[in-house]
Design goal:
about 300 residues, alpha/beta, Rossmann fold, 6-stranded parallel sheet, 10 helices
């Protein structure tokens, strides 16, 4: 028997309310950030490879200034709309859900693995949870592929994003990716939008449900799991991104236009840029807003 409509539960997550264990987990992440992450600036090498080229180290040694972590949908690629459509189709195919919210802030966490889990737990479809999550993931990926084959124009870069990793690396910052999307589909979208990601440390919904954990995982990977408090800024387009950065005590730069930009500001974003075309303005905000995790 299938559910006709799912209203996802509002458990602890991106709305900022919930259980003590989760809040204690976030405090633990902040402590790990402060005593963890590293002086690897003397040793780490970051490379960005464009299709058909050999990787070249862009930032290394003592020139490292800190870490800039990027979301994907709506931040590096203009794929939020196609993402929503493919989610509806996958939920309908696998779980029989004919109507679902694509306001990701209404789920326990605004990440693909958590969204799939919420839909499964709220529905009546029978089956082992992990197996159903994988079926939703595979259906979603298949529909992203079909959308790409049907209309590649649905997968456009945010203006300036194909060049932004090189730009920040040349300025001494190390790039990383932390997205609430599954790895397979995140990489499909970035490749379709011609945003180079090979060699960029990344974490995805496959790694964890909470966005805070995904961000901290990307940071550790970018810094080879070594330990030190270094300046970090997260770049995202969702209110869940603002809140995740706030919980971790790191800097935040919003990406958005019009009503989307206003929502970010209302959620607490101190700055919202429309895109990356003005690299100088973006780097100035990185300099101004990056801070070590947990800094007051």
């Amino acid at each position: 028997m299938f559910a006709d409509q799912i209203d996802p539960p509002r458990r602890m997550g991106d709305d900022g309310t919930g259980s003590k264990p989760f809040l204690e987990e976030i405090q633990g992440l902040k402590r790990d950030f402060r005593i963890g992450l590293s002086d690897v600036w003397r040793r780490v090498h970051v490379s960005v490879r464009y299709p058909g080229t050999d990787p070249d180290p862009l930032v290394s040694g003592d020139s490292m200034r800190g870490l800039v972590i990027f979301d994907v949908d709506g931040t590096l690629s203009l794929t939020s709309e196609v993402d929503d459509d493919c989610w509806r189709e996958a939920a309908r195919e696998v779980l029989g859900v004919t109507s679902m919210s694509t306001d990701w802030s209404t789920y326990s966490h605004s990440t693909d693995e958590a969204i799939a889990t919420d839909l499964i737990r709220s529905g009546t479809v029978m089956g082992e949870e992990g197996t159903l999550v994988r079926k939703v993931r595979d259906s979603f990926a298949a529909r992203i592929r079909m959308a790409l084959d049907r209309d590649p124009a649905l997968f456009q870069p945010v203006p300036g994003s194909p060049e932004i990793f090189n730009a920040i690396s040349e300025a001494g910052w190390s790039p990383a990716i932390a997205t609430g999307g599954w790895r397979l589909t995140a990489e499909m979208k970035l490749a379709a939008a011609k945003v180079p990601f090979t060699g960029i440390p990344a974490a995805h919904a496959d790694d964890a449900h909470p966005r805070e954990v995904i961000i901290s995982t990307a940071a550790r990977r970018a810094m080879n799991d070594d330990r030190a408090a270094c300046p970090i800024v997260y770049v995202g387009d969702g209110i869940w991104d603002v809140k995740a950065a706030g919980r971790l005590g790191i800097g935040f730069i919003g990406l958005g236009r019009g009503a989307d930009a206003e929502r970010l500001r209302a959620a607490g974003a101190g700055i919202v840029l429309s895109d990356f075309r003005d690299v100088g303005a973006f780097l100035a905000e990185v300099d101004a807003r990056s801070r070590p995790p947990g800094a007051d």
